Amino acid sequence: MIRFDNVTKTYDPRSRPALDGVSLEVSRGEFVFLVGASGSGKCTFIRLVLKEDHASHGAVHVAGRNVATIPSWRVPRLRRGIGVVFQDFRLLPNKTVFANVAFAMQVIGKSRPMIRETVPDVLRTVGLEGKNNRMPHELSGGEQQRVAIARAIVNRPGILLADEPTGNLDPTTSMGIMRVLERVNQNGTTVVMATHDDDIVDTLRKRVVELRNGRVVRDEAQGVYEGAIAAAAL
Amino acid sequence: MRAAFILSEIGLGLRRNLSMVISVVLVTFISLTFVGAAGLLQLQIGQMKGYWYDRVEIAVFLCVDNSTSPTCAAGPVTAEQRDAIRAMFGAENLSRYVSSVAYESQDDALRHFRDQFANSPIVDSVTADQLPESFRVSLVDAEKYEIIDEAFSSLPGVDVVSDQRELLERVFTVLNRASLGALLVAGIMTLCAVLLIATTIRLSAFSRRRETGIMRLVGASKAVIQLPFILEGVIAAVVGAVLASGTLWLSSSFLLTRLARQCPDTAFISAHQVLLLLPALILLAVLLAGASSLLTLQRYVKV
User: Fold this and answer.
1) Across the interface, do A108 and B218 touch by the CB < 8 Å criterion?
2) What tens digit of pLDDT does each residue of A96-144 get?
3) Among A161-170, B56-65, B192-201, whose mean pLDDT is lowest?
4) Which of A102, A227, B147, B230 could form a disulfide with A218 if both were Cys (CB 3.0 to 4.6 A apart)?
5) Interface probe, candidates A53, A84, A106, A119, chain B, greatest B C-beta count within 10 A
6) Is B96 helix (H, G, I), strand (E, B) or coil?
């Protein structure tokens, strides 16, 4: 679903690259944690998948296509196939929960009946039934993140990218969000989640890819947050 | 669905930026009023030139019933006199100065008069026999007017030889300077309008960066993201253009009726001709606003 072939991304030629020869494959339906300190390249990884930036060297394939060959007018189509969730939720403060989720369908031209049918379904999936008409500021942080997830998956993307989705939430709420992401993953969506949250990674025991200084230093199935090498160093 | 969505986005943008939108409307209003005024002055110059202005330099008017000059004492020009005058143009000493001669009969004169004074109240009261027949002469060298004047003005049957261009040219100089001044003001105001539209779009894009960011992420097309901003600028500019058109039409129709009454011997443009200019103003507004907002969006709204 996502394949990086020896990808290097250099923002500033005088400093070290943000990603340095990364090769990585994420298959359809996988759930991958991307871990590593700030500045390790997690964010760059996500930007490259979305074609917000282009790789300096190497090739990025998303859904079987080399993103470098996608012309700029087709980039929106690429992004329709990818849902994104952020640490800071990024909801529209003056729209209701329903309208926030519906917005993602409106801007790509979905019909009103379809929106009325789909949005409540998705809100139920993320555990927000009955909160259609609330405003974002009336919701807790966890509920706001659920709205953001609902918005990311409402157009049924094949891939969900989550950039520290639990970064602003307490542990209990975070676990609730993880249940939602697991449910999304079980419905067939590939999930890539960048995170600092060791509790979550250690509890869920999914595939873990660790980045350090732009290189993949660890890639293990059912991994934990702290790698064997790092643990030995302590 | 998408059209409704874009419309609601435009409404939102216009409301959020109301003070900027009003200033865009006012600045385009003023600038296009001056553009229009310059255009109207040019139309007026065209109207005053009449049929012969760009074709010949000199008119040799022949006598009619009410001519007062001494050469017309014997009454209207006779056929023999007319033939004699016509023959003079072919004479050896004159023909090298003359590049062409056209004869305008009284009926022709009435036709040309009616065209030029179509908007004047006197047009219906003039008949062919009141207008003199004439020879319209185009010279090899326009400065040699004196020669023709000397040769013809004392001939029997010739009422007057006139160089109409000289008279009109003085008026046209004034009108041309006025329209140049109007264009200068229009140019400065248009520059203001373009810059103001760019600033407005920039502010609007900044205040809606959350929305556009999300639109981008969920894969909205470039058109859906940018169209509301462009249309916002275009709508404001078109409102300004409509105000300018209304002002031009009202003031010119008021002014033209008064002027036509005061100077019945001058041909004026009509209010209908003013209407022809207005679509051009609106088109100009659309182009200016569209271009400046597109350029701004290239820089400030990443897609």
Assistant:
1) yes
2) 999 999 999 988 888 999 999 999 999 999 999 999 999 999 999 999 9
3) B56-65
4) A227
5) A106
6) coil
**Rg, C-alpha atoms of chain A:** 18
The partner residue sitting opposite A155, judged by closest CB among B5, B214, B218, is: B218
d(CA B84, CA B265): 31
Taking the CA of residue B240 and the nearest CA in chain A, the distance in Å comes to 30
- Give the ranges where chain A is alpha helix by DSSP (H): 42-49, 75-80, 97-106, 112-125, 141-153, 171-186, 198-204, 228-233
Chain B nearest-CA distance from A14, in A, is 26
Minimal-distance CA residue of chain B relative to A105: B218
The reply to whether CATH 1.20.210.10 applies to domain A1-81+159-234 is no
A141-153 vs A112-125: helix axis angle to the nearest 10?
A: 130
Is it true that domain B58-162 has CATH number 3.30.70.3040? yes
| Ranges of each domain in chain A | 1-81+159-234, 87-156
Question: Which residue has tokens 């003013």?
Answer: B274
Q: Which residue of B210, B219, B222 is in closest CB contact with A108?
A: B219
